[in-house]
């Protein structure tokens, strides 16, 4: 009896697994399954040109759709492309309850199509679309709506959607480039991890404007942008063929090198399977941004684009050049003076171009530009452009290229050869025929050859004498600068004991102020020679001492002339203290709102730019981006020379490990908080841009963002008051009684209004803000900051 029952159960199981009902030859019924190595491995379209199922990928398998021929299978779609490959024991099943499920083993499974409704049957369409239908024959899910890197004839890329390139033709995981169909109607190519700014874009359809456009590839191969409102073709990128031919299929792919390409495939059996490239953008590889990695530049060698390292850098990984290059000599330490103290050389290179905004820009002659960079320890490279502007930059450089049309000269700061540097194995010396290298050593060598031995010994004597003198002089200067040998600044951060700091602050006697993190005390180190500010942190959530050390090291690595420098810290038991350089001239809030000496216009413009550069450094130039989270005038301090420096950066993380949570309760600075705080939306770099914008308007108008003691109620909120006057074109009313150049005033107001847009995507990046302030880019007329919420 028992054995009969078991047999019945077995039969039932066998029946269930075989009960794939394909009542219609072209449809896949509930209960059907696919296997990586057993038949069936895929479901075919009626024409047999497309298949959906398991395909082999290295040692494992992926689920996807491919276009088939005898010569070649072309993958057009991959399910869960960034997931791990599955093994040969996996099963893909359209379950009896209407789900498309991938079972990786007996316990784990994953949905391929997430839909709320249950499917009745599926179909692999001849267009390359895999579709799930409900019982009313309505489409409830299709692969065309979730493109990866490919569009097939008949497929669209909707507004706000994007194609992401694959790692390579064999590895279909997300690669390095994206094609965005933007809400503004523009179709744009960007490197993957960048913001949506024109600085990062390397190709665009230039179709922004009023229209609500989406991209469509039709069945005759026309690639067009279609107006959502009236469904008419608004722009044609490629015309396609004039006649419809059912044996030809079109495909648009964002390939792994960042090109957008349109191919035609002919399936006609009387002909050989044929693939031809019909259209491709952009034209040349060196215009694809991030084709080469950081600190490398793109150039042509025998008509082939190649990536080469900038002078003074070597490839991070010789086998993977797109990872970029790193400096092969030790970075300079910037002392208090900001002047370069160590021996460095300059290598000039012609025809170089890049888009990274410089931190300093001034009109100069060639020699002065080169010299100015050599002497400025913040400068890694200076670019003298054709207009005679010397633009100084820090590494890393993005998107650098050699452009024969660019009549500019770059001056790279390099270490003297033989300086201890990182050894990158297998570095082959690069042939660089077009680069002119003029070094001091070469000059000396020339002298040796021409003037003979006697002269040589003479020169050698002179040089060694000079260096000996210079070395001593430098040592002496260093000592003077430091005024203290005990506090070793070269060793980045110092860890203090609580007792030391208690003594240094005389028992926390002189309180300088109370910030959002706790009180700040004046103290002195090395027997009164160095005045410091000691901050005693309260409410630190992250109690772990190790984490705190790690956090401090991150902050300690940030060096910029517009950031207050952290000298050391103390972590003992529950005590957390930070030691900063002392800022003698108080905060920007004091200067703007309280002081008798209202700063004049030029000074305010300078301060605004200095702060922007400090934030840009935190956002773009550190190892990992740092969101400040609390930009406000109270957190901008002024040093002896009235240079603005940002304080308290990097601390938000200590108070709030999860940066996606709002901490309105912890902080009280309402006026500067971006709307996403209130809406509990995730915060981003753009949150700082908002706070900067509010502060910029305060700097312009020398008044607080909220002021209750005003004559009319509409003046209470600074931002709306400014926008009202901006709209009415009466900016002079914002700065009563001051003689200010109208252009300059308008520029700052416009930047401020762009920064405080409710919609984070509309706010510019700090890179862009700096460029606008420096007058490098034009500024469009900003819309009303709160338009989106009205
Ligand atoms: C293409 O896919 C089919 C079906 O999975 C397979 O039989 C064939 O061998 C593949 N062709 C190539 C060239 O890989
Ligand atoms: C299915 O393929 C046919 C022929 O290629 C096409 O006309 C039709 O629009 C496709 N249907 C869907 C839903 O993609
Ligand atoms: C594909 O590339 C990604 C990212 O580079 C990598 O993590 C993954 O292991 C690769 N997959 C295969 C099958 O090589
Ligand atoms: C870029 O814009 C698209 C929509 O056009 C949006 O989905 C995406 O999040 C934006 N990316 C960034 C980094 O702002
Ligand atoms: C899209 O269509 C609407 C309505 O016809 C029209 O007002 C708008 O100008 C069109 N946009 C573009 C970019 O053609
Ligand atoms: C595809 O678009 C082009 C350009 O708009 C048009 O001329 C052609 O008729 C379209 N083809 C089909 C099959 O709709
Ligand atoms: C369709 O294309 C095939 C191959 O390119 C060609 O042989 C055939 O003549 C075309 N058919 C029509 C109707 O144009
Ligand atoms: C650093 O790189 C440059 C070329 O970029 C090379 O000339 C120099 O020898 C390298 N120095 C070291 C120490 O590797």
Description:
The relative contact order is 0.05. This protein has a six-stranded mixed sheet, sandwiched between helices. Helix 7 (601-621) runs antiparallel to helix 10 and helix 10 runs antiparallel to helix 12 (742-755). 22% of the residues lie in helices and 26% in strands. The N and C termini lie far apart (75 Å). The chain has 790 residues and is of the alpha+beta class. The protein folds into five domains: 2-145, Bulb-type lectin domain (Agglutinin, subunit A), CATH 2.90.10.10; 150-287, Bulb-type lectin domain (Agglutinin, subunit A, Orthogonal Prism); 328-414, Hepatocyte Growth Factor; 494-581, 2-Layer Sandwich (Phosphorylase Kinase, domain 1), CATH 3.30.200; 588-773, Transferase(Phosphotransferase) domain 1 (Transferase(Phosphotransferase), domain 1), CATH 1.10.510. The structure holds 2-acetamido-2-deoxy-beta-D-glucopyranose (8 copies).
CATH architecture of the largest domain: Orthogonal Bundle
Low-confidence stretches: 7-18, 418-454, 456-463, 465-491, 657-668
Bound molecules: 2-acetamido-2-deoxy-beta-D-glucopyranose
Shape: elongated
Rg (CA only): 32 Å
**Ends apart, CA distance between termini:** 75 Å
- Main-sheet strand order equals 36-40-41-39-38-37
Structural class designation = alpha+beta
Q: What's the CATH H-level homologous superfamily of the largest domain?
A: Transferase(Phosphotransferase) domain 1
Number of strands: 43
Number of domains: 5
């Amino acid at each position: 009896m028992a054995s009969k029952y078991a047999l019945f159960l077995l039969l039932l199981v066998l029946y269930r697994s075989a009960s794939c009902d394909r009542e219609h030859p072209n449809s896949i019924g509930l209960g059907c399954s696919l296997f990586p190595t057993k038949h069936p491995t895929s479901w075919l379209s009626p024409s047999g040109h497309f298949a959906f199922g398991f395909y082999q990928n290295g040692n494992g398998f992926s689920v996807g759709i491919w276009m088939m021929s005898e010569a070649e299978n072309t993958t057009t779609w991959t399910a869960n492309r960034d997931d791990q490959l599955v093994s040969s024991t996996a099963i893909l099943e359209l379950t009896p309850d209407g789900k498309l499920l991938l079972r990786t083993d007996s316990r784990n499974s994953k949905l391929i199509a997430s839909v709320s409704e249950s499917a009745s049957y599926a179909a692999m369409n001849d267009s390359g679309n895999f579709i799930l239908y409900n019982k009313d024959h309505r489409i409830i899910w299709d692969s065309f709506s979730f493109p990866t890197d490919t569009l097939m004839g008949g497929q669209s890329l909707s507004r706000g959607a994007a194609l992401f390139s694959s790692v390579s033709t064999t590895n279909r995981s997300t690669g390095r480039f994206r094609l965005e169909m933007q809400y503004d109607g523009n179709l744009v190519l960007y490197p993957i991890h960048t913001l949506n700014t024109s600085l990062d874009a390397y190709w665009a359809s230039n179709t922004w404007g009023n229209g609500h456009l989406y991209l469509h590839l039709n069945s005759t191969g026309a690639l067009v942008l279609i107006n959502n409102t009236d469904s008419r073709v608004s722009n044609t990128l490629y015309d396609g063929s004039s006649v419809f031919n059912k044996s030809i299929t079109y495909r648009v792919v964002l390939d792994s090198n960042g090109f957008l390409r349109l191919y035609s495939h002919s399936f006609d059996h009387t002909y050989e399977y044929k693939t031809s490239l019909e259209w491709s953008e952009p034209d040349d590889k060196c215009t694809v941004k991030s084709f080469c990695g950081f600190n490398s530049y793109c150039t042509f060698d025998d008509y082939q684009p190649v990536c080469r390292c900038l002078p003074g850098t070597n490839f991070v990984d010789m086998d993977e050049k797109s990872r970029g290059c790193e400096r092969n000599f030790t970075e300079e330490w910037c002392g208090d003076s900001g002047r370069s103290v160590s021996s460095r050389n300059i290598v000039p290179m012609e025809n170089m171009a890049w888009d990274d905004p410089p931190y300093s820009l001034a009109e100069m002659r060639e020699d002065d530009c080169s010299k100015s960079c050599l002497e400025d320890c913040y400068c890694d490279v200076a670019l003298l452009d054709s207009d005679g502007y010397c633009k100084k930059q820090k590494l890393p450089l993005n998107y650098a290229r050699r452009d024969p049309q660019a009549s500019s000269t770059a001056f790279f700061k390099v270490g003297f050869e033989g300086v201890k540097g990182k050894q990158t194995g297998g570095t082959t010396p690069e042939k660089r025929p077009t680069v002119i290298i003029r070094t001091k050593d070469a000059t000396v060598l020339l002298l040796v050859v021409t003037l003979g031995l006697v002269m040589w010994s003479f020169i050698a004597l002179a040089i060694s004498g000079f260096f000996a003198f210079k070395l001593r002089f430098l040592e002496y200067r260093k000592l003077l600068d430091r005024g203290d040998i005990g506090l070793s600044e070269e060793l980045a951060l110092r860890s203090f004991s609580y007792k030391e700091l208690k003594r240094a602050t005389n028992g926390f006697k002189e309180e300088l102020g109370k910030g959002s993190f706790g009180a700040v005390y004046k103290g002195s180190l090395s027997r009164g020679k160095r005045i410091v500010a000691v901050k005693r942190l309260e409410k630190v959530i992250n109690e772990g001492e190790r984490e705190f050390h790690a956090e401090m090291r991150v902050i300690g690595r940030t060096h910029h002339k517009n950031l207050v420098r952290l000298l050391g810290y103390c972590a003992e038991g529950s005590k957390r203290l930070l030691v900063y350089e002392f800022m003698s001239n108080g905060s920007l809030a004091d200067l703007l709102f309280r002081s008798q000496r209202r700063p004049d216009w030029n000074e305010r413009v300078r301060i605004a730019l200095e702060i922007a550069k400090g934030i840009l450094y935190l956002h773009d130039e550190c190892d990992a981006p740092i969101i400040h989270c609390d930009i406000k005038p109270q957190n901008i301090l002024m040093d002896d020379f009235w240079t603005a420096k940002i304080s308290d950066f990097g601390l938000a993380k200590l108070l709030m490990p999860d940066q996606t949570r709002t901490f309105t309760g912890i902080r009280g600075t309402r006026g500067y908080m971006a709307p996403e705080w209130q809406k509990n939306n995730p915060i981003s770099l753009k949150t700082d841009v908002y706070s900067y914008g509010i502060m910029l308007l305060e700097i312009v108008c020398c008044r607080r963002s909220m002021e209750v003691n005003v004559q009319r109620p509409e003046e209470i909120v600074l931002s709306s008051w400014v926008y009202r006057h901006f709209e009415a074109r009466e900016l002079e009313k914002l700065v009563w009684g001051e003689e200010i150049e109208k252009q300059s005033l308008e520029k700052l107001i416009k930047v401020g209004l762009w920064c405080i847009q409710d919609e984070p995507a509309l706010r510019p990046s700090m890179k862009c803000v700096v460029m606008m302030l420096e007058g490098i880019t034009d500024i469009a007329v900003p819309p009303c900051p709160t338009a989106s919420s009205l």
